[in-house]
Write a structure and sequence with these properties.
Layout lengths: L5 E5 L2 H5 L8 H9 L8 E5 L26 H15 L4 H11 L3 E7 L18 H4 L27 H17 L4 E5 L12 H22 L4 E7 L2 H6 L4 H7 L4 E5 L23 H8 L6 E7 L12 H12 L5 E5 L8 H9 L3 H4 L4 E4 L18 E2 L6 E7 L3 H6 L3 E11 L6 E6 L2 E2 L5 E6 L12 E7 L9 E11 L9 E11 L23
Parallel strand pairs: 1-2, 1-8, 2-3, 3-4, 4-5, 5-6, 6-7, 7-8
Antiparallel strand pairs: 9-18, 10-18, 11-17, 12-16, 12-18, 13-14, 13-17, 15-16
């Protein structure tokens, strides 16, 4: 059995059937594989439509758009037209991708999104991506009996207590397993993580275990070498709260790979490898998983997102990718699962990132950019659990944790470390406000602090955030430690004539290295993308 170290997820829609003009050609569809050839990516995780409807020649499921008469969304119609044009030409889209992956020696794992809302048939909110099975069987929805609050996000999700719901999913798995030369199959549990009525989770957890057991049997019946991959919330408490008894699945040996993600699958990168390092009960999400399966045949992969969505950058630059990847490897995982299809079309910076991320020893002495994630504009559903922003109150200390994987003492001792920079941004601040800043409990001297005034700006690389930056170049006396570090902020004195809220919004740590002890550090690699401005 091949044990891929690096898995790459594509939803097969946004960078593929949404992009090309119909009629789509076989060679265009093959590009989803071709773009990964020559990289360290060993396995392609290929999404089957949107989970409710498929984009391949299924006989047991429903094909995307075939139940639609009038389209309210041009791109969804384009996807339909592209899939139909391939099948009209005698090609099954899933076979194209599967066969091309085999030709190019890339393992191929179809991905099934297990859960999405049922949607509505007509009128406002009509979801043309949904299936007749879901649209015509609203009584299978979790909220069907009408006793849940209207804002419960799982109201219109399928309740897996119903045998019909589970069998509809199993039929798709069985068809794909029987008809395609796949290397494994991924069940994506974390896309819309609601499976039972909240008061019935405990009594139905065994049903979900039985469902996973059946998927495992289907795959192994076709080939013992095929792997079952499950993608879940990284925290085992979160899994149990929605009916996923992951440790029981591991004990039974019915899962081969666990892919750990922050709950609800946010696309925003988080270098804090435990994902929620500031809550002691969640401190070691990935590490706990790794330890739990250590002496079993189950492997743990951690998801590495690629989107930043800050005011300065949309996608994470390579130094931020290194920081996140190294922090994840520190947790003892067996591999990475990268979700970067939103970076399409892939350019040189994409390939440079992919080349390095499987080698933490190579990345150890390269520049890294750590940050504490802040709630962003795209995080409209609150999927990313963030420490920041925090409103500041006079004399009341606040503390934020940040994970660092670098052994700064060692690299400084061999003269490879160039600089260690701590940046803190406080919005609403003026030159008349003063603060005390601490790192791991030690107060940082104001004599080494540089203040950068961005109280107002006429323009910004992406969107405008105003405030003051407080920047420290840290010498060895104040180095962050390898592991979890705490950054403390106290509002010391407030501008007496201002009532604007002061908010701690950003914390960043830059570790910068030299190629060698006698090398300079004066260039910017063009592959990193445009830094409109750099806080140094």
């Amino acid at each position: 059995m091949a044990n891929p170290n690096l898995m790459f997820y594509t939803d097969a829609r946004h960078p593929l059937v949404y992009m090309y003009e119909p009629p789509m050609y076989k060679e265009e569809f093959e590009s989803t594989v071709d773009e990964l050839v020559g990289t360290p990516i060993e396995a392609l995780m290929f999404c089957l439509g949107d989970g409710r409807t498929m984009q391949h020649d299924t006989k047991v499921g429903e094909i995307w758009g075939r139940n639609v008469e009038m389209w309210k969304h041009h791109i969804f119609k384009r996807a339909y037209d592209n899939v139909e044009s391939l099948m009209d030409a005698g090609f099954d889209p899933l076979s194209i991708a599967c066969n091309r992956a085999r030709e190019k020696n890339i393992l191929f794992y179809p991905t099934l999104l297990l859960q999405l809302e049922s949607g509505v048939r007509d009128g406002p909110g009509y979801d043309v991506r949904s299936s007749d099975f879901r649209l015509n069987n609203k009584h299978f929805d979790i909220g069907a009996r009408g006793d849940l609050k209207s804002d419960f996000p799982g109201n219109n999700c399928a309740d897996f207590k119903h045998l019909e719901v589970r069998n509809e999913r199993l039929d798709i798995v069985n068809e794909v397993s029987s008809n395609y030369q796949i290397d494994g199959f991924e069940l994506q549990f974390n896309f819309w993580p609601y499976y039972f009525h909240p008061v019935e989770v405990d009594v139905n957890t065994d049903l979900m275990t039985d469902f996973v057991r059946n998927v495992h049997k289907i795959l192994k019946k076709a080939s013992i070498q095929r792997e079952l991959v499950i993608t879940i919330p990284a925290n085992l408490k979160d899994c149990l709260s929605i009916g996923l008894d992951v440790l029981e699945w591991v004990r039974e040996g019915i899962v081969d790979v666990i892919v750990a993600q922050p709950i609800k699958r946010p696309d925003v990168i988080d270098p804090n490898a435990s994902y929620i390092v500031y809550d002691p009960s969640y401190l070691n999400d990935i590490k706990e998983l790794s330890e739990s399966v250590k002496y079993t045949n189950t492997r743990v992969h951690a998801t590495l997102a690629g989107t930043l969505d800050s005011d300065r950058n949309g996608h994470a630059p390579i130094d931020m990718i290194r920081a996140a990847a190294c922090s994840i490897w520190d947790q003892g995982v067996d591999g990475l699962y990268i979700d970067w299809f939103a970076s399409w079309p892939y350019d040189s910076s994409f390939y440079k990132k992919v080349r390095e991320i499987v080698h933490p020893d190579i990345m150890a002495s390269k520049d890294k950019f750590y940050h504490v994630p802040t709630g962003t504009r795209s995080d409209t559903e609150g999927k990313l659990t963030c420490q920041l922003p925090i409103n500041l109150v006079s004399k009341v200390p606040v503390k934020v944790n940040i994970y660092i994987s670098d052994d700064l003492v060692y690299w400084d001792s061999v003269n490879r470390l160039h600089d260690v920079i701590l940046r803190i941004r406080i919005t609403g601040a003026t030159e008349n406000d003063s603060f005390i800043f601490k790192l791991n409990g030690t107060t940082l001297p104001k004599t080494s602090m540089r203040i950068i005034n961005q109280m107002y700006g006429m323009d910004s690389p992406r969107y405008r955030i105003f405030g003051q930056w407080y920047v420290f170049h840290l010498d060895k006396t104040y180095f962050p430690v390898k592991g979890v570090n705490s950054v403390g902020v106290i509002l010391e004195n407030r501008d007496a004539e201002s009532e604007v809220q002061l908010t701690l919004r950003d914390i960043e740590i830059d570790t910068k290295y030299l190629f060698g002890a006698s090398f300079g550090k004066g260039f910017i690699d063009p592959d990193l993308g445009p830094y409109t401005y750099e806080i140094t």
